Amino acid sequence: MGRVEAVNTAEPFSSAESRLRAVPPHALVATAASLLAENFGAEDVTLLLADYGLTVLQPITHLPHTSDPVSAHDGPAGTAFTTQTPVVEVAAGTTAERVHLPITVRGDRLGILSVGVPAAYADPAAILRLVEFATALGHEIAVAGRDTDLYLQARRTRRLTLAAEMQWQLLPGRGCARREYTIGAHLEPAYAVGGDNFDWSTSADHLDLTVTDGMGQGIDASLLTNLAVSALRNARRAGLTLADQAALADQAVYAQYGGKVYAATLLLRFDLDTGIVHAVDAGSPQLYRLRDTGIELIELEAQLPLGMFEETPYEEQTFEVAPGDRLVAISTGVHGTRSATGDVFGERALRQILSATRQTPPHETARAVVAGLIEHFGSKDLVSDAAVICADWTGRGIDTARPISTGS
């Protein structure tokens, strides 16, 4: 009876958050376990983080070490991660239950918090509080990444190449969610990526989204992409238009490499009120729009990649998205990859996957595209990097108030 009473008399949720914030980064898991024991009678708490390839969930034990991983797509924990909903697992022959809780920060899926609690604590109200706790823990893990390598190390099933290390540090995350849109992204080969990158930035009225493909392989491609993306961010943060962002980045890349190498980039800027999208196609990434049951390649004016020639002028185009639309942006390593028989992935197989995954969340669609690419190519050892961004557009209603925050 005492434990049931503890659910109702537990310390305020804000106090639990403050205790998480107060501990050093390496102590987050132990502190979370203590708080859950105090407030929910939890006897077994495990933090599982998704690995870079989104194939497994790594149970975090004595950081930076992990115990045996579990699938990120199957089983109770994998189902909770894929569906982004809590999953309650009943332990056979006991009165205990295990609750698997998604840890997601503003649409970026980090992993699962698995909590063993007495059955009396698995009612809907308690699970809601557990979900809130998992979200708070996720925010602290994300912030802790500024001060410690522990959680980044724990996500790895093997060592990253230096080029991949640079690329993952450059990425904004693998997802972003707001009332107007939900973004999911995937990158392969996750542990050896070189030149592919995706980026986004959200504000009160706009969403900026880019896909960049740096020429070359390994560290050379990573250095090139880092320069191009940093130049684009510098121009964006200066308030420049998309065309001027592309022009500034073009000059930066040309000044460094003299036209010997270049970066292909697709730049998009969404008006959250109207759904009008400004676009600059500076190279080879492709963009598909799924509307109702149709799939169309959005034909944009092909302009020169960044850094190919000195002072290249760029022009913006516009198109429109409507509520319910899905946009999928892919790098050259996706649409240009050929099978052993010479079939280009983007011509047929890609459309089949996009159609089959129309109702799945953007994260899972992005992952499915890369999985289909690997099957099409016949090997996990892709010749070129592959970047995929999937965005579901909800938009704003006429009377919808301007949001003051993003995601969870």
From TrEMBL:
One Pfam family linked to the record: SpoIIE
Alphabetized UniProt keyword annotations: Hydrolase
Example of a GO MF term: phosphatase activity
Domain of life, source organism: Bacteria
InterPro entries to which the protein is assigned, alphabetical: Bact_Sigma-Reg (IPR052016), PPM-type-like_dom_sf (IPR036457), PPM-type_phosphatase-like_dom (IPR001932)
Ranges where the PPM-type phosphatase domain occurs: 178-393
Protein name, entry field: Phosphatase
